[in-house]
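Reminder: ligand-aware prediction takes two inputs, not one.
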Amino acid sequence: MAALQQNNIILKSIPYTFKDASLLDTRAFIGGKWTAAASGATFPVYDPEDGKVAFHVANTSRDEVRQAIDAGHKAFLEYKRFTHRRRRTLLRAWTDIVRANRDDLAAICTLELGKPITESYTTVDYGLSFLDWFQGEIERLYGDTIPAAKADNRIFTVREPQGVVAAITPWNSPIAMALRKVGAAIAAGCTVVLKPAPETPMCAIAVAKLFERVEGYPAGTLNVVLGDAASSPAIGEEMCHNPLVRHLSFTGSTTVGKYLNGECGKSLKKTSMELGGNAPFIVFEDADLQKAVDGLIASKFRSSGQTCVCANRVFVHRSVIKQFVEILQATQEKAFVYGSVWDPKVNFGPLYSQRGVDKVAKHVEDAISKGARLASGGAIKKELGPYLYPPTILVTGEKSPSKTDEAPMLFMTEETFGPVAPLIPFETEEEVLSLANTFQSGLASYFYTENISRLWRVAEALDTGMVGARVGLISACEQPFGGIKESGMGREGSKFGVEDYTNVKSITLGL
Ligand code: NAP
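Here is what comes back for the chain with NAP:
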């Protein structure tokens, strides 16, 4: 039915008819032209709701990535001369066009990621909030005037765009990730070659389709290259080694981030690394338990647990853990509606793939084998498709007060990236801070207390780039987003997000 009205590009029926089916394209965007791979190669994109193929998308070769970088460089030579006001006007025009197409963008996100449609709208709006914010930042990219030591010198600085930015994004929030990176780089005066994750290329393509409609950007200001897991190493190598790329901005796992950062180091390219986390969520004995449960549900279960800032290890003071579990179970049972991801009432969707399901199942089985008790969830809801893993609560440390000293369960050392909340009892503030800070990840952390001294003390003591002190949702366009340690470097969003794509040039003037 609907498939035939939609450019014949969607390979399955969906209960949504696109207002503008021309947003559906399966080609790369290079130098202002939509291009299939010269080799004719394509790769499949699946609908996670039923596991069926939804699209076949062009598989870009390394040579085509080089062409995209060349096009980005050519465009940069022109675009870098645009005034800040002109850049701002163009970015506003793109933002308006994206906003006018939010229904179709949300639908693409739901189709290729399996996100419930209401959540897809949230991520489109989250992405739009960055475009709105970056517009304002463009004209606030100030330099400094510095008092010179020499009487006949004057020193000032200007912020200049860096050049071609290669941007690599993951699948878990495809529209927001693309808008957050591309919006900031373009605001700074850079041009971009974007490589989206192979699971969600259509979101990036649609965003580029809308970019193309803005009159005034030089051709090649935004390029999109596409590749599956087999071709991404060659794409990554070109991005890391091509001298015209001046900045690699990557969001994804720590393993891949370390590799790409190492490759970029060979030619001293600037990098921004938004990597994996393993967020601790701490509930102190003086916390408002209902507030903490609400925060945990928001932090842990939104997007089915597939965000980098999701709580991963939930530490609850031993004196309140029993009560906390009861409130959590009761609240969680009422919180979620399951069903078709196209139904606006549904607020919990499938994991993105079998790979996601396997990892979650492995973490749950491992925890149970090491003594955890399954308090809810713990198995696929087959009647709702192959990848629907429900909210799962595990309670650990019930067998003996010293169980937290045992060989660590997998979730203690690895991101689960799924809807599993493992509860771990603790006794003292010192002990829990040591557990929270033990590992090399340092993206986000959360804690709940009603004690104002502890609020400051713990916020300062947590080794993460972001802290939620009595909040479970911490991402906003005006807030610096990023991690420390092996969770990465650089900040996205906020004034730092745009500054990251500029070089500070100092100019010394002789009188
Ligand atoms: P991933 O395996 O690292 O992949 C991320 C992206 O990198 C994908 O587009 C992937 O494409 C690409 N990629 C992998 N190897 C590459 C290479 N050698 N050269 C070029 N591109 C390459 O991560 P993921 O599993 O998709 O995403 C989940 C991870 O991202 C989690 O660890 C999560 O915490 C993290 N994340 C972090 C943030 C943040 O802001 N800190 C936000 C969201 C997600 P292929 O699949 O084709 O290889």
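The longest strand covers residues 153-161. DSSP finds 15 helices and 22 strands in the chain. We will return to this case in the review session.
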